[in-house]
Write a structure and sequence with these properties.
This protein is mainly alpha-helical. It has helices at about 1-10, 15-35, 35-40, 50-70. Helix 2 (about 15-35) runs antiparallel to helix 4.
């Protein structure tokens, strides 16, 4: 993906969205595997690591969407079905 964005499209702005998205995904996986027991014990089994992991993964997908939108933003105003 970095090769296509940086070399072929000559865009750097989407990479500034993809890096935080990757970081959020890594944090979500760490929360899933490392914080499950800690959060579950601390909250008396009311909240576990999957809740935090789901929030972080949702944020990662949202930031990934913003990166995709920044690549395709000039084609949003194109009229597909001209009259």
């Amino acid at each position: 993906m970095a090769y296509i964005v940086l070399r072929i499209l000559n865009e750097t702005r989407p990479m500034w969205f993809y890096l935080p998205s990757a970081l959020l995904f890594v944090l979500s996986q760490l929360a899933w595997f490392l914080l499950v027991r800690v959060l579950c014990d601390a909250s008396d089994s009311k909240v576990d690591g999957s809740f935090l992991a789901t929030l972080l993964e949702t944020a990662a997908v949202g930031v990934l969407y913003l990166g995709w939108k920044s690549i395709t933003e000039e084609s949003w105003d194109d009229e597909y079905y001209p009259s």
